[in-house]
Amino acid sequence: METNHHNMGGAPPPPSWFNATHPHHKTTLMHMTFYWGKRVQVLFTGWPGNSTAMYALALTFVFALAVIVEWLSQCNLIKPGANRVAAGFFQTGVHTIRGAIAYLVMLAVMSYNGGVFLAAVLGHAVGFAVFGSGVFFKGKP
């Protein structure tokens, strides 16, 4: 049986990407707990970067995605009397797009950045208030 002298505790070593080096940083470390700050990667490697303006853009993007998820959850774009088969395929397409955007919001939140988390939660809240609660529209949109 082969023994690993560097890891006698029995736990496997961390994956290779966990402490991957980055050309602009000495070491990048994935956060596994919530943290605050603008140094975050949201959805894509290197985005939003280190600027405050790009971080604000990333938060706005996550907020907008969450609002869109709520709109797609509440909207009814099918006209009464529409072809049932066509309407069913259309609803399936809308549902698929809503699910994909919801997963993007979830992946953004998995950055464990407090600002990204708050942007997603507030986006869902605003989206539901506008499109789902009936406060702004008499009937559902």
Automatic annotation (TrEMBL):
| Top-rank taxon, per record | Eukaryota
Q: Which Pfam families match?
A: Ctr (PF04145)
Q: What is its main location?
A: membrane
Q: Where in the cell is it found?
A: Membrane
* An MF annotation (GO) of this entry: copper ion transmembrane transporter activity
For this UniProt entry, what's an example GO CC term? plasma membrane
As given in the record, the signal peptide range reads none
User: What is the recorded membrane topology of this protein?
Assistant: Multi-pass membrane protein
What protein am I looking at? Copper transport protein
